[in-house]
Amino acid sequence: MYVVEDDVDIAHLVQHQLQQSGYQVRTFSSGSSVFSEAVKQQPILFMLDIMIPGINGFDLCKQIRANEVLAKTPIIFLTAKGNESDRLAGFQLGADDYITKPFSPRELVARVGAVLRGLHPSPPQTFSVGNIEIDPISMTVKVGGNPIAMTVREFRLLEYLSRNQGRVFTRGQLLDAVWSSGSYVTPRSIDVYVWRLREKIETQPEQPKYLKTVHGAGYRFDVPKPVK
Prior knowledge:
By secondary structure, the protein is of the alpha/beta class.
C-alpha cells in the first residue's frame, strides 16, 4: 500500500495503524516519484493527500486512472480539503473513498478494509444486458465487444443496477448497496457516478438507453428492446 502524505507525524500514524492491521505500507512525502514506483511495483491501494509537494493528489489520481496497469487500483483520498466541491472532484477523478482530516485511525483502517473487500466478491457468472457484457470475476465490462475501463465503484454500481433491471433506486438506496457504511459519499456523488457510467456505456449519454433518471425518485436500469 502506498501512502502519500507530506506531514511526517500523520504519515507515521497512518503507517503504524495500517501495519498493525497486517498491511505492508510504503510512505512518500511528495507525489513526484509515486507513479514511477507504482508502475514497477503495483500497490494494493493508494492513499493520497491532495496538497503535497510535486504533483498534487488530484493530478496523481488522474495519472493512475489513465494507466492501463494501475487503473483499477483503489484510491482513497486522505486530506484536510473537506468542502463538498473537493469531495465531488475526488470522486469524479475516480476515487473509491474520501476521508477528511482530522480522522479516526480505527475508522481509517475500517474504510481501507471496506474498499479492499469490494475487490474480492463471491464469483458469479459473466452476464449480458443488451450489448453490455459484465464479468464480475475479472471486473471487466465490454460494450459491443469493446473493453471499457472502469473503477471499482463504477463497476459495482453498474453491476448492482444491471442485476436489478427495471427497479427504481433512490440515491440513498444505491449508497447503502454499493458503498460501505463508513464511506463519506453524498447523494450528489451518485449523480457523478451515473454520469460517468453513461459516458462509458451509452452511445448518446445525454439520451441514455440504459441508465434512466426517474425524476423525483432516482435511477433505473432498462434494457432497450431490439429493433425489429
